[in-house]
Design goal:
Shape: globular
Helix content: over 70%
Distance between the termini: 30 Å
Order of helices and strands: HHHHHH
Largest sheet: none
Radius of gyration: 18 Å
Structural class: mainly alpha
Amino acid sequence: MFRKKDIFFKTLEAMADLIQETVDRFADAVNGELGDVTAFAKEMKAFEHRGDQFAHLIITELNKTFITPIEREDIMELTKLLDDVLDGIEACASRFDMYHISKPDSFIRKFGDVLRRSALEIKAAIYLLTQKKLLAMQTHCVKLNELENEGDDLMREGIKHLFQNVKDPIELIKFKDMYERLEETTDACEDVANTLQSIIMRNS
């Protein structure tokens, strides 16, 4: 797929590109009516599967390569965490199907926006990593931390709204779980930032 010397950085870039593509599709979908939620869940599963293939490629190449562009532990951790973001998006999408939610509410739409902005920050930071512009990554890491805080606030506001306004306990449980899973996905984005900050500290 790529030249040997480029394989790790190019695949990390491909994973970052895939995260942005996946989150853009997710955010666009929740900004309207989802329609066929089963088809949407399958589409998100296909994105997640592509991420698994990239992760498998990196692990395979790590087992064959002696010299890597950054510490192999850092490559492994970043690969896992980028894959976790894709897993999180897929898990959120699957809940629309499981719970028969075809009309996302305002909190889900806001989460879509937070995740879209997080994906952009992840992509920018990964591309700076592959250019070895480590200190420049810091701004994007800080922004990812701020976006995770937005996710925390959204979850709390959303759950508070549910308990104040939703009388049907089944509906309350469904949307509460959805908010919590979306917030966990913003946590996964922050985990990427934390690992990138560790790489900055060790290599600057």
